[in-house]
Design a protein that fits this description.
This protein has eleven helices and nine strands. By secondary structure, it is an alpha+beta fold.
Length: 333
C-alpha cells in the first residue's frame, strides 16, 4: 500500500462502503474549499473522495449540501457524476465527505482553451455547456424546496441577494479596497428589476470547473458555490476575464464568441436573454472574483492555510477590479 494519502482506519471504512479494497489513495491538487483524493480500488475502479477543508470561502457550501445538490443536478440530466455515499466525520470532526465516480477529462484551463488535442472539442463546447446550464436551471426552489435548508430564498432580487452576501467578507478584509467598495455601490444602484431568485445556480460555472475530452464535454464539476439565484449569474460568470486564460478575444471561457453560446442557451432553455442583464452580471462576476481573490489570500496570511497558491491568487483582486471598472465605463458588452 505505497503512496497512501489516508490512514488505515479511513481506508478500511472506504473499502467497506465501496465493497472492495482501496489499493491506492492520492491527494489531488486544487480545491479551494475541499480536500480531494483519488482512490484506486481493487478491480480497476476509480473514485474521488471530497472532504471539507480546514477553512472555506464565503458563500461556499459544505460537502453534505454539495452532495444533495449534485444528486439533484444528476437527476435533472446534468452531465455531472452522481455521488455514491455521504460520510460524516471521515477525516476530521464536524466535517463531511462523499464519494463520487472518477470521470476522465482535462480540467486545466490553459489546456482547454489552447491545447491542439482539444481543438475539435472547443468547436462544440459552447453549445454543450449552454445545454448543461439549461438543465441546471431547470431545478428551481419549487422543484427542490429543501435543497439549501428550510428557509425559502428571498425572491425579490437575485442581484441584491448576491450583493448582501458580499458585505460580510468585505467587512472582514484586513486591507481596504476603495475600488471594490465603489463597484459594490454601483451594483446596488444599477441592480436590474425583474430578476428574481428563480433557479439553481452552479455558482462557479467556468473554464477549469468542467472536464473536456477530445470528443467533447465529459462532466461539470465543483458545485461548492451552488445556490438559488438568477440564471444570468452562471451565464456571465463564464465570461469573467480571468476564466479566459489569455484568450481575451473569446469572451465565453476563452473558447467561443458570445452569440453562439447565448443562442444555444436560448434554444435549450426557452428563455430570451436580456443583454443589459448579461452586462450587469458580468460586472458583478468580476467584482465577486476580486473579492474572492482577496479572501483567498487572507486564508493564507491570517487563516492558517499553508498553500502558496492562495497567496498567489491575491494579485487577481486588482486585475478583476480593473476589468469591472472597464465594463462599467464601456456600458455594454
Amino acid at each position: 500500500m505505497a503512496d497512501l494519502a489516508l490512514d488505515a482506519r479511513t481506508l478500511t471504512r472506504l473499502g467497506e462502503v465501496l465493497g472492495a479494497e482501496v489499493v491506492r489513495a492520492t491527494r489531488l491538487a486544487g480545491g479551494a474549499c475541499q480536500d480531494n483524493f483519488l482512490l484506486e480500488v481493487a478491480g480497476a475502479a476509480r473514485w474521488v473522495l471530497r472532504s471539507d477543508a480546514r477553512t472555506s470561502l464565503p458563500g461556499s457550501i459544505d460537502r453534505a449540501r454539495e452532495f444533495a445538490v449534485m444528486k439533484a443536478a444528476a437527476r435533472a440530466g446534468v452531465k455531472t457524476p452522481e455521488p455514491l455515499a455521504l460520510l460524516g466525520e471521515l477525516l476530521a470532526p464536524k466535517t463531511s465527505a462523499y464519494l463520487v465516480p472518477f470521470v476522465a477529462g482535462e480540467a486545466i484551463g490553459r489546456k482547454i482553451v489552447k491545447g491542439p488535442e482539444l481543438a475539435a472539442a472547443r468547436a462544440g463546447l459552447a453549445g454543450e455547456l449552454a445545454a448543461e446550464l439549461a438543465r441546471i436551471h431547470s431545478v428551481t426552489p419549487e422543484t427542490q424546496p429543501g435543497l439549501f435548508g428550510d428557509t425559502p430564498p428571498n425572491a425579490a432580487s437575485a442581484a441584491h441577494a448576491r450583493i448582501e452576501g458580499m458585505r460580510g467578507p468585505m467587512g472582514a478584509l484586513r486591507r481596504e479596497r476603495p475600488a471594490l467598495a465603489w463597484l459594490v455601490r454601483w451594483l446596488e444602484e444599477h441592480a436590474p428589476s425583474n430578476d428574481p431568485v428563480s433557479v439553481l445556480v452552479h455558482g462557479d460555472f467556468r473554464t477549469g470547473n468542467f472536464l473536456v475530452e477530445p470528443r467533447g464535454l465529459s462532466a461539470v464539476l465543483d458545485w461548492e458555490f451552488a445556490h438559488f439565484g438568477s440564471p444570468y449569474e452562471d451565464l456571465s460568470w463564464l465570461s469573467v476575464r480571468d476564466w479566459r486564460f489569455g484568450q481575451l478575444a473569446l469572451p465565453i471561457g476563452g473558447f467561443s464568441a458570445r452569440r453562439p453560446f447565448y443562442d444555444a442557451y436560448e434554444a435549450a432553455s426557452g428563455r430570451a436573454l436580456d443583454t443589459a442583464k448579461l452586462h450587469y452580471w458580468e460586472v458583478l462576476g468580476n467584482v465577486a472574483w476580486a473579492l474572492g481573490a482577496a479572501c483567498q489570500t487572507e486564508r493564507y496570511t491570517h487563516g492558517g492555510e499553508e498553500d502558496l497558491e492562495l497567496l498567489a491568487i491575491g494579485r487577481r483582486a486588482s486585475e478583476m477590479e480593473w476589468e469591472a471598472l472597464r465594463l462599467v465605463e464601456k456600458g455594454a458588452l
